Amino acid sequence: MKTINAICLIDDDPITIFSVKKLIEVTKITQQVISFNNGIEALDYYKNTSTELFPTLILLDLNMPIIDGWEFIDAFSKLEISKKTFIYILTSSINPEDIKKVDEYDKKHPFSIKHLIKPVTKEKLNELAISICN
């Protein structure tokens, strides 16, 4: 299977970060996972990272302190990013309004935005990797 160059995980819940990192390790969809506790830390990283270490996939929590996931996406879109990026919003919500907002953001921004219903599983990560690498 092809692998993703790097994955960025943005979530303020240490249990989610730990469990998703373990699942990524088991699935071997990437060799590099970068994690942040909030969107500001992630934006600082993206402003200062070299292009060869630039994560293709961002797994993003919506409800975080400092800035929420939507604010992160809006700020991220203002960065001069030349790499293809996929953002998957980690959510436990199956509310049609939330799904509609994800679709609106996907159309509004120059990168792909989708949602990934929690809990994250090996199967979901493998499917995600296949869709990104094709």
Mean of residue pLDDT values: 90
Question: How does CATH name the architecture?
Answer: 3-Layer(aba) Sandwich
Q: Report the portion of residues in β strands.
A: 15-25%
* CATH topology (fold) name: Rossmann fold
| Tally of DSSP helical segments | 5
Global shape: globular
Write the element-wise H/E pattern from the N-terminal end onward: EHEHEHEHEH
How far is the N terminus from the C terminus?
11 Å
For the CA atoms, what is the radius of gyration? Answer: 14 Å
Strand order of the largest sheet: 2-1-3-4-5
GO molecular function: DNA binding
InterPro entries: CheY-like_superfamily, Sig_transdc_resp-reg_receiver, TCS_response_regulator
Protein name: Response regulator containing a CheY-like receiver domain and an HTH DNA-binding domain
Modified residues (4-aspartylphosphate): 61
Describe this structure in words.
The chain has helices at 14-27, 39-48, 69-76, 96-108, 122-133, and strands at residues 7-10, 33-36, 57-61, 86-91, 112-117. Strand 4, helix 4 (96-108) and strand 5 form a beta-alpha-beta unit. The chain has one domain (7-133): 3-Layer(aba) Sandwich (Rossmann fold), CATH 3.40.50. The chain contains five helices and five strands. It is an alpha/beta fold and 134 residues long. A five-stranded parallel beta sheet has the order 2-1-3-4-5, with helices on both faces. Residues 6-133 form the Response regulatory domain.
